[in-house]
Specification:
With about 400 residues, this protein is an alpha/beta fold. It folds into two domains: about 15-50 and about 295-390, Aspartate Aminotransferase, domain 1, CATH 3.90.1150; about 65-290, 3-Layer(aba) Sandwich (Aspartate Aminotransferase, domain 2). The chain is about 35% helix and about 20% strand. The protein has 13 helices and 17 strands. The chain has helices at about 40, 50-60, 75-85, 95-115, 135-140, 145, 165-170, 195-210, 260, 280-290, 295-315, 340-350, 370-390, and strands at about 15-20, 25, 30-35, 90-95, 120-125, 155-160, 175-180, 185, 190, 210-215, 240, 255, 320-330, 330-335, 350-355, 355, 360-365. The strands form four sheets. Strands 4-12-11-10-7-5-6 form a seven-stranded mixed beta sheet, sandwiched between helices. A hairpin with a 5-residue loop joins strand 8 (about 185) and strand 9. Helix 2 runs antiparallel to helix 10 (about 280-290).
Length: about 400
C-alpha cells in the first residue's frame, strides 16, 4: 500500500532534483528546469545562494539548537530588524506558516480574555483563504475539501466573501475578537485585495475594538515588491504571520505583533521547541541582509512589471489558453482556459515549474532574484504551451 513508505498525501511528479543554481534546477536524469514555483513561494533567493550557503555552513559548525529556555542572540537580531522595518513591537519565531497562524489566532483570543471579555473569541475570516493544515487553521479558512473527514470543525470562525466590506461589518457581533485576511489570496487563486478593502477592514477593527490579523505567510518578505504586502494599502495590522520566504528554503516562521495586542502573552502561554534556533536564525538573517539591501525591492518591482506586461501580452495573443492575468509583484497567476493541471503539466514537459492554485489558476512565484534573462526564458516556455493549446 505504501511502496515508498511515505504517507500518500502528495500527488508527486516523478522527478528527483539534485541541484540548483539561481532560478534553475537540475534533475537526476540531467534535465534542467526553470523554477517559477520556488517550492511554493519559499526559495526567495533562489537555489544555492552564496550568502545563505555561507551563513548556514558557518552556523552549522558552531551550534544548531539550544532551546528557547536560553537567550538566542540570532533571534534578538532578527526580531529587531523585523520590528524596525514594520508596525510591530515584538516577534516570535516558529517553523512554519501554519504554526505562525495558530499563534496569530491565539493572540487574538488571549487579548480579549485579558481585557475582561473572554466571550470575544470569534474571528471573521474570508472565503477562498488558506491559513495552514492544522485543525484550527483549516477551520479559519473554512474550505470544505480540506475539512472533510477530520471530524467536527473547530469553532470560532465566521466566513464572509473576500473583498466584501459590508459582509464583514454584518458578521461582527458581541463575540467577535478579530478580522483575518490575506492581502493576496494565494491558494485561493492569486487574488489581491483592493487597498480600499484593507483600509476598510482596518477602520472596522478600530470601530469595534477588534484586532486586525494578517496572513502574510506567502506575501511577506518582498514577494509583492514591498517587504510586506499590506504596505501597499497604507495600513498596518495588529498581528501578522510570516513564513515561506523568511528562511529562503530553511523552515522559519514568525509572528509580529504590536505591544498592545501581545501584552498578555506571558511565560507559559505559548512555546515552540525548534522555533528560532541558531541555525534557522543564521539563515533568516542572511535572507534579510539581501532583501533589505538598498535597491533590492525596487529591482523586484521593476522585474515584476516587466514580467506582468509580457504575461498580459500572451493573454491577448492566446485567449484560448489564458483568460486572465492577476496578482501583485512576483506573486502572479494565470487563470487558464484549459485545466490548470494540464497547463502546468505541459510547462513541466517543456522544462518550467509552476504551481496550481484555486479558481483554475497557474501560480507563478519565481525567486525574487530573477532578471530579464529568466523573464524571457519563462515567457518562451509559456508561449510554447499557449501555441500548443491554440
Amino acid at each position: 500500500m505504501f511502496p515508498d513508505n511515505l504517507l500518500p498525501v502528495f500527488d508527486r511528479t516523478d522527478v528527483i532534483f539534485e541541484s540548483g543554481a539561481g532560478a534553475w534546477l537540475r534533475a537526476a536524469d540531467g534535465r534542467r528546469f526553470l523554477d517559477f514555483g520556488s517550492g511554493v513561494a519559499v526559495n526567495s533567493l533562489g537555489h544555492g545562494h552564496p550568502r545563505l550557503v555561507a551563513a548556514l555552513a558557518e552556523q552549522a559548525g558552531k551550534l544548531w539548537h539550544c532551546s528557547n529556555l536560553y537567550r538566542v542572540p540570532g533571534q534578538e537580531r532578527v526580531a529587531r530588524r523585523l520590528v524596525d522595518a514594520s508596525f510591530a513591537d515584538t516577534a516570535f519565531f516558529c517553523n512554519t506558516g501554519a504554526e505562525a497562524m495558530e499563534l496569530v489566532i491565539k493572540i487574538a483570543r488571549r487579548y480579549h480574555h485579558c481585557a475582561g471579555h473572554p466571550e470575544r473569541h470569534r474571528i471573521v475570516a474570508c472565503t477562498g483563504s488558506f491559513h495552514g493544515r492544522t485543525i484550527a487553521t483549516l477551520a479559519a479558512a473554512g474550505t470544505a475539501k480540506y475539512l472533510e473527514g477530520f471530524g467536527p470543525v473547530a469553532a470560532g470562525f465566521d466566513h464572509v466573501p473576500f473583498g466584501d466590506l459590508d459582509a464583514a461589518r454584518a458578521a461582527i457581533g458581541p463575540a467577535t475578537a478579530a478580522l483575518l485576511v490575506e492581502p493576496v489570496q494565494g491558494e485561493g487563486g492569486i487574488r489581491p485585495a483592493d487597498p480600499a478593502y484593507l483600509r476598510g477592514l482596518r477602520a472596522l477593527a478600530d470601530e469595534f475594538g477588534l484586532l486586525l490579523l494578517m496572513d502574510e505567510v506567502q506575501t511577506g518578505i518582498g514577494r509583492t515588491g514591498m517587504l510586506f504586502a499590506h504596505e501597499w494599502s497604507g495600513i498596518a495590522p495588529d498581528v501578522m504571520g510570516l513564513a515561506k520566504g523568511l528562511g529562503g528554503g530553511f523552515p522559519v516562521g514568525a509572528v509580529l505583533a504590536t505591544e498592545r495586542a501581545a501584552a498578555c502573552m506571558t511565560p507559559g502561554t505559548h512555546g515552540c521547541t525548534f522555533g528560532g534556533n541558531p541555525l534557522a536564525m543564521a539563515v533568516a538573517e542572511a535572507v534579510l541582509d539581501e532583501i533589505m539591501a538598498p535597491g533590492f525591492l525596487e529591482r523586484v518591482r521593476s522585474v515584476a512589471t516587466l514580467l506582468r506586461g509580457k504575461l498580459e501580452d500572451l493573454a491577448r495573443r492566446f485567449p484560448r489558453a489564458i483568460a486572465e492575468v492577476r496578482g501583485q509583484g512576483l506573486m502572479l497567476g494565470l487563470k487558464t482556459v484549459p485545466a490548470n493541471t494540464a497547463f502546468t503539466a505541459r510547462l513541466f514537459a517543456a522544462g518550467m515549474l509552476a504551481v496550481g492554485a484555486g479558481d483554475n489558476v497557474v501560480r507563478l512565484v519565481p525567486p525574487l532574484i530573477i532578471g530579464e534573462a529568466e523573464v524571457e526564458a519563462a515567457v518562451g516556455f509559456l508561449e510554447g504551451v499557449c501555441a500548443e493549446i491554440g
